[in-house]
Amino acid sequence: SHKPFRYARHLTSMLILAAALASxxxxxxxxxxxxxxxxxxxxxxxxxxxxxxxxxTTIYQFADSSRTDRIAPPPRRYRTIVVQLWYPTDxxxxxxxxxxxxxxxxxxxRSAGYYDADSATIMSWAHIDxxxxxxxxxxxxxxxxxxxxxEGQGVARSNYTTFIExxxxxxxxxxxxxxxxxxxxxxxxxx
Length: 191
Fold this sequence. Notes:
This protein has five helices and six strands. Helix content is 29%, strand content 25%. The protein has a six-stranded mixed β-sheet with strand order 3-4-1-2-6-5. The radius of gyration is 18 Å and the shape is globular. The protein is an alpha/beta fold. Strand 5 (146-150), helix 5 (161-169) and strand 6 form a beta-alpha-beta unit.
């Protein structure tokens, strides 16, 4: 009889933690206090992961061709979902993944007034690189635990990058899902 109460308390705690992390991630801190907005934007860095592993990331777009997306405007498409994986890697070279991997997302965020952030702040995110190397092979090791990360409340998965990279640097594989109509995202074939 106390299980629903414990579940609700646990869920509330997780939502508060997620909101706090999103708040931190939405407003990355500049590494230096330059007077020029352009210089400050280019000097913005994300906090370094705390774990011993280097990090890789890869983005996948999957389509469920067994059903049409009934919500999409004509011409209707198949239901698609974007998943970004972060994982430990042995790679030491490669391109660092951008904080916002899809530039169309920045334009959509700016147009929507994403979380009341001003246009200059949103566009400055285009100059932020993450600590993950893009499209490199995962580390060769024993099987690693998988965390499925589900953002929500209209927040883009990129805003959780610092948190997710920290998990990956500590030996976890993290799959972050862009819910087609539950988070803030754009697909490769349009919004």
